[in-house]
Amino acid sequence: MPATQKITLHNPLDMHLHLRDEEMLHNIAQSSAKSFSGAIVMPNLVPPVTTKEAVIAYRSRIKEAIDDEAFTPYMTLFFKPDYSRAFLEEVRDEITAIKLYPAGITTNSEGGVSGFDVEELRETLEAMADLNIPLCVHGETNGFVMDREAEFVPIYEKLAKAFPKLKIIMEHITTKESVAALDRYENLYATITVHHLFITLDDVAGGMLQPHLFCKPIAKRPEDREALLRVALEAHPKVMFGSDSAPHPKHAKENCGCAAGVFTAPVALQLLTELFEKHNAPIENLQAFVSTNAQKIYGITPLQKSVTLIKEPFVVPAEYNGVVPMFAGEEIAYSIEEVNVG
Ligand code: DOR
Ligand code: ZN
User: Fold this and answer.
1) Which are the contacts of 14, defined by CB distance < 8 A and separation ≥ 6?
2) Ligand 1 contacts CB of residue 44 (under 6 A)
3) DSSP label at 327?
4) Which residue has its alpha carbon closest to ligand 1 atom 3?
5) Ligand 1: distance of its center to the CA of 108 in Å?
6) Most buried pick, 4, 13, 185, 336, via CB within 10 A?
7) 137-175 pLDDT, tens digit each
8) How many Å apart are CA 23 and CA 164, to the nearest integer?
9) Residues 6 or more apart from 9 whose CB is under 8 A from it?
């Protein structure tokens, strides 16, 4: 990307977002709704979103929180291995994907899957493939924290082989092993966050501990970040931007027992623009990474929204309604100049 002063992104999509509920939903929903056309909304509420009624009710709470902002919440269900074909047919039109969490692996995932027995999952996953419902996966084992994602790759491969018609999205990938898996199976795709393109474990724990950069999966090694950067900057057709923006109240982060999650929604597009410019990547690639690839993979047509970014320093606020964003108090290179709907 040339060192342009201004760029316009069309219909940006965030393919992995935590919008939460109640007060937090009201506090943070605008951060995404103002600058994105839509987002895949994660279902890990308490209790998780597992019924058609819960999806419909959560969507209407989101709509209320975003007021009249032009923004589509693409809804998801929390995967349960006992979802029947009849249930999936009934809920199909209300959802865009289903999110699978290994049991207990991260925030509010206690009711997830333990053991990945193909036969146990067969009825549900075959029905999802037939109904063209993508499976989004949090791919970590409960092994050593730096190895959890790489250890999960054989599970991705097992699922990809057993269910070749199922679209499997490896969510928020952080390792070179996951990047390599992308090209081995036609039905594997991935989302990448902005924070994993910027930081490594050194930024989290190499100096003073940085709770606001602590998330799951944890940021890995420089060579992992390099592998992620390569496929993001070239806009590999199987990768999409998914922020995994995961707000927690300041006190839950700056605490003995820090909650996992980085809040990036208000600064994601500015940081991505800075990154693509820094690496001289074409602006078309940024457009593909933040929208077009996702449209093709998911078969969605987003609301029309253009976001113009200008190369003017922006000092990231210390807090947004009690939530500390990534790079709080620091100066970043781009600002959002204007957003046009339609
Ligand atoms: O860091 C994370 N925070 N990773 C997840 O998978 C969940 C998320 C959250 O919901 O807070
Ligand atoms: Zn997430």
Assistant:
1) 32, 36, 38, 39, 40, 241, 242, 243, 245, 265, 268
2) yes
3) T
4) 261
5) 9
6) 13
7) 999 999 999 999 999 999 999 999 999 999 999 999 999
8) 41
9) 269, 273, 286, 287, 290, 291, 306, 307, 309
- Would you call 2 exposed, middle or buried from its count of C-beta atoms within 10 A (0-12, 13-18, 19+)? exposed
Ligand 1 binding pocket includes 17 (Cβ within 6 Å): no
Q: Residue whose CA is closest, atom 4 of ligand 1?
A: 216
Nearest CA to ligand 1 atom 2: 261
Is 93 among the residues known to form the active site?
no
- 5-30 pLDDT, tens per residue? 899 999 999 999 999 999 999 999 99
Q: What does the alpha-carbon distance between residue 297 and residue 286 come to, in Å, rounded to a whole number? A: 16
Peptide bond into 43 cis (omega under 30): no
> For 205-250, what is each residue's pLDDT tens digit?
999 999 999 999 999 999 999 999 999 999 999 999 999 999 999 9
For residue 256, give every residue at least 6 positions away whose Cβ sits within 8 Å of its Cβ, in sequence order, or none: none
Domains defined for the chain, CATH in brackets: 16-265 (3.20.20.140)
Residue 26 tokens read as 């009201």
Q: Residue 138 in contact with residue 101, Cβ under 8 Å?
A: yes
Instruction: Identify the pLDDT of residue 282.
Output: 97
Ligand 1 centroid – CA 280 distance (Å): 31
> What is the average pLDDT across 263-284?
98
**193 within ligand 1 shell (Cβ under 6 A):** no
Give the number of the atom of ligand 1 that is nearest the alpha carbon of residue 262: 1
Which protein residues have their CB within 5 A of the ion that is ligand 2? 244
For residue 311, report the distance from its CA to the centre of ligand 1, in Å.
31
